[in-house]
Amino acid sequence: MILNRRGRTLTLVAAAATLAAVVCATDLLVEHRTEAKVADRASHSLRPDGPVHVDLTTSLAGLRTLGGDVGDVEVSAEGVHRQHAVMDVTVRLKDVTTDGRSAGGTATATVGYDQVTRRLGALGDGLTAGGQHGDLVLGGSVGTLGLPVTVRAKVSTTSDAFTITPTTVGVLGRNVPVDDLDALPAASGLRDRLKPRTVAVTGLPRGVALTSARAGGDGLALNFSIAAGPTPQGDGGAA
Residue 47: what pLDDT? Predict the structure, then answer.
């Protein structure tokens, strides 16, 4: 009798283990197929130079898709071309469904400093952009004498533009507010060059808005909010 009970217990344990293995394998298989479909759609929409990576971050995401619910999704793409700039893009969406809707999310587009430098126009003439503690920093030489300067600037945003506003200039061993540059003979005329520059972010998909910008280690990171509804298409993009 004891042996029979033990045998039935072992059979139940083996059956449960087999079922768990089947469920896990099915989940992974469906998840992999879903990730491949999302990556293909993102590649077609964004047309990046580099790879597209997709992660389904909700538990049992594969099995959930069988009921039309993908869950939370993160998509990253390298080398996306928008407005004569190349950027790396990461999109995070909540509660994505198989019919192409979501509960909203966020996105980040990172533009390399070499491209930021090229887009500064007169503000960046002779200066090279970089980042430090979240601020944009422009360094280089200006004027006929090649005066070395370091310009620190704040980056502010509206829903469809970002503005670079120089705040201080490191010149001749002093950090001087931009508004006080006229008091330095060696820096005369520099203040006019350091006027704020606004860059429009056009062609954004419906429901996408610029929320903030930060000068990071890899480039200028533009952060966006994504409204709930149909998942945005990549027909538009950041500056």
Answer: 85
- Residue 153, pLDDT > 50, answer yes
C-alpha 39: how far from chain center: 17
Contacts of 111 (CB under 8 A, 6+ apart): 85, 86, 87, 219, 220, 222, 238, 239
Sorted by where each begins, the domain ranges of the chain are 1-239
Helix (H) or strand (E) holding 32: helix 2-46
The secondary structure of residue 189, as a DSSP letter, is: T
CA distances for 40 relative to 1, 12, 75, angstroms: 58, 42, 11
Residue 22 has pLDDT above 90, yes or no: no
Q: Is residue 194 predicted with pLDDT exceeding 60?
A: yes
3-state SS class at 86: strand
pTM score > 0.85 for this model? Answer: no
Q: Which residues pair with 118 in a beta bridge?
A: none
Closest CA to 34 of 58, 4, 8, 17: 58
Q: Measured between alpha carbons, how far is 50 from 219 in angstroms, rounded to an integer?
A: 17
Strand pairing report for 105-111 and 220-226: antiparallel
Q: Is the dihedral of CA 42, 46, 51, 55 positive or negative?
A: negative
